[in-house]
Design brief:
Blueprint lengths: L1 H29 L6 H31 L6 H6 L1
Helix pairs in contact: 1-2
Length: about 80
Amino acid sequence: MVDSVVVIGSLAFLIGLVWLGVWVFRKIMRGEIGVSVNTALLALLVVILLVPFAMNLSAHFVYEKMHHSSGTTEGAAASN
C-alpha cells in the first residue's frame, strides 16, 4: 500500500511540473510573458536535462522500495 502511495504521489508531482512548464511555454509563445530567445532556449535546455534525471531518480526510489522493503539487508540474506 505504501509503495503505491509513493508512486502515485511522485507521478502526480511530475505531471504537475510538466503541466506548469507547458503553461509557461504557452504564455511565452503567445507573447504574454516577454523573454529573450536566449532565456527561452536556456529554459528549454534545463527542462530537457531535468526530465530524464527525474525519471531515473524516481525509478531508483521505486526499485529501492520494492526490493528492500522487508527490512533485511543483502548481507543478512546471503548468510541464510
